[in-house]
């Protein structure tokens, strides 16, 4: 009975896994197909009749991908550093420092999670336009230095689970608040920090709407924005678009699979605490 129950559970999980993998498999299949004759066959074919690996070579020869990769990497890794630093410092303040209105301010920070990102695009664009930042990478980097509500909440919960006696011992030894933060709290928050780093990497690497709004010159394009150029008014080279998408998505997928245990562990530990 127990074996049958487990078999049913695994069968259901495998079914769900296949459902979630289908878009990725279809993208891979399309990237290896030829022209319209292969793309728009009926019934649709998941396995191409012939594998056109040259699609990837052609895509790489179409644009200066090195420039796009440099821009994307700069935005991604700078935003990772900025988000980790700012969110950790703010979370430490909410978890350990005592000041008037602390809990109310924290609630106000959390309430910003309910504001849809797209409702702030117009005022943000007006602000960055007045600052002269449009068509530069600054609008995609600088806001990360102000933290993110969800990451602040995650780290605050983790910090609150650290015994306060460690603070007292460090203060007796003459450690300052910043020394306590850097030498005690950050090392103990490693699972949560890795989780945030992975999530922020995936978010910044795959961001499309931000670059679409702020970046107008090709020299400033990111990888995701470059993929949009494969879409035409009357015709779209779907096989080239999917080949480019596969290459752009691969680093994010690798990053996720390597760190998925940290993501589960970091969120679970912070939730328990």
Q: What would you say this structure looks like, in words?
A:
- The chain is an all-alpha fold and 273 residues long.
- The protein has a single domain, classed as MetI-like (MetI-like fold, Orthogonal Bundle), CATH 1.10.3720.
- It contains 14 helices and no strands.
- Helix 4 packs across helix 8.
- The model has no long low-confidence stretch (mean pLDDT 86).
Percent of residues in β-strands: under 5%
The CATH homologous superfamily is named MetI-like
The helix fraction, in percent, is over 70%
- Mean pLDDT comes to 86
CATH class: Mainly Alpha
Give keywords.
MetI-like fold; 0% strand; 273 residues; mainly alpha; 14 helices; 71% helix
Short synopsis of the structure:
The chain is an all-alpha fold and 273 residues long.
Give the topology.
Elements lengths: L1 H30 L4 H4 L14 H9 L2 H32 L5 H10 L9 H10 L7 H4 L7 H12 L4 H8 L4 H12 L1 H16 L3 H6 L8 H5 L10 H35 L1
Helix pairs in contact: 1-14, 3-14, 4-8, 4-11, 8-14, 11-14
